[in-house]
Amino acid sequence: MNTATIDGFNFDLPLNIEQIKALAKYHRKQLHEAIYHQEARIGDIGIKQRAKIATFTRVLDTQTQSEFYHIYNAELEKLAVDDPIHPPHAEKGVSIFVLLLALILVAGVLYFTFVSTITATT
């Protein structure tokens, strides 16, 4: 059984799913912490993470490499979706009904402010 190390995580070959998920969680944590520190650049951290993973996966066969990336990316997506601070429904935007209601309200206010004043004075 061969082992390789990425960011302090030892990977057994054949791959262990829990080890890949732990690495993805660690990388997500690094990126999350970089957001709040001005001396750390998120892009640089992301590139370094991907470079380490690419170096590791070069020694794997195509099937194992595909499996690794599938598990790693799925875990990162799951972590991004499970973010309690930014839930997915908060990014869907405003419904068309609310927009139409707001436009009707603004039109009503403008009508009664300007047109009723002009017709009352004439």
User: End-to-end span in angstroms?
Assistant: 94 Å
Strand content: 5-15%
The major beta sheet can be summarized as: 2 strands, antiparallel
Quaternary state reads single chain
Mean pLDDT: 82
Rg calc = 26 Å
Assign an overall shape.
elongated
Give the strand tally.
2
Low-confidence stretches: none
Summarize the helix and strand pattern as letters: EEHHHH
Tally of DSSP helical segments: 4
| Helicity, as a percent range | 55-70%
Biggest sheet strand line-up: 1-2
Indicate the structural class. Answer: mainly alpha
Describe what is shown at a glance.
With 122 residues, the protein is mainly alpha-helical.
Structural commentary:
The protein has four helices and two strands; from the N terminus they run ββαααα. By secondary structure, it is mainly α. The chain is elongated. The model has no long low-confidence stretch (mean pLDDT 82).
